[in-house]
Amino acid sequence: MQKGLKLTDILTTVVISIVFGIVYKLWGPFYYFVKPFGLHIDQLIYGMWFIAATVAFLIIRKPGVALLAEIAASSGEFIMGSEWGLEVLLYGVVQGLFAEVAFAAFRYKRFDVFVVSLAAIGSTIGSLIMDFYKGYIEALAPWNLALFLLARFVGAILISGVFASSLVKALEATGVTQLVRSASKEDFDQLNR
Amino acid sequence: MRLDSYRETWLHRTNPSVKLLVMIGVFFVVLFLHNPNVLINLSVGLLLLFFLYTGYPMKYLVLFFLPFFVIFVSTASSMTFFGQGTTTWVRWGLVHITKESFFRGMHLGFRALSFALLGLIFSLTTRPVYLFYSLMQQLKVKPKYAYSFLAGVRLIPMMIEEFQTVQNALKVRGADGGGIVNKMKRYAVPLLSQSIRRAQRIAVAMEAKRFSDAKNRTFYYQIGVSRYDVIFFVWMIGLIGLSYYMATVFPYFPVTDVR
Q1: pLDDT given for residue A185 in this prediction
Q2: Which of A132, A174, A191, B237 is at 20 to 30 A from B122, Cα to Cα?
Q3: Cβ–Cβ of A72/B152 closer than 8 Å?
Q4: Which residue of A has its CA nearest to B117?
């Protein structure tokens, strides 16, 4: 057994993430189009920027994939010239790290909606830590801050948790995920029958 | 992001890794900067770098700059309208503008602007291929990661083409209606599954051609460090120093800390 991720895993993760990198880039204009409506409605769609980590992990199911995916997606967004510039790269690293922690907490053995939502919450916390330094969010009026936090958490769970896992279910139906996943215990049981 | 009509400047010749590291350094300086006077000076300096030395025609630069203005306004507005403060200027319904929240809002706007400029200067003056070769040679990033990224970047045009194919196919079949979730899935599933298959094929092909992670490998592009890197480093340090100096000698506002 080779230690760490193999070339196939890395390449697949990076390529999937670059698809999401394009989505991340296009999400920017959408985000500031929604923003003028005020009252933090924009925060409901913020969760899209965490989706690469959860989807890539659900597809490949290996340690380190979530972090790599989020870094790859954000650097894809960065190279394409994001409106936020350099900060997307560092947000990506922190968000990926916190998603990774959520998956590691279950020793990379659980792939259900609950764990994925937990990873989405993790990424949200990561993004909030960055916002705390960058955006002085603690200086918002209390009711406004509460609304801001609620919208971001709910959006993240819905998009990067629930939607991501239903997306991967649809991908599993195409059979393509079997190309990249390592053989599971059920597969071996099938052989022993 | 690159367009064909640019002339090469010294910013294009700086080493991508050095450029990235210096910019991350400036990023952290800006992150922990709470004096709006310094930040405004710094943003002006970056703006000069952007307009003078990225080597693109002015009309493109202005076009690139437009979305930043929106970011500036949108970032500044929430904090200005809803931030906490003691010296009230305007109170209108939920909106409560105070002197403190106004300066904090402006500060955030300039901060977003300088982050955006750092990123845009980098992506306008760096070829992705050189960036990843330089990351392997100067920062010792493992080749299997760097080449995966290179392959991924190379696939972007193909993905965009595929996206258009899916779009047309759905239109022809009259299947472009429905809710937003279903619509997103209809695009995401074919695009992702094709990407996975393609990545798989590339990986197999690379390994069949004996791609290895060996330490002492050779590179098609040799990327080195030159005097342009020194110029870039000195430019940034000088800018930060000058911003602080000017802010103490000629401050624009009497505010020195927006927190």
Answers
A1: 65
A2: A132
A3: yes
A4: A85
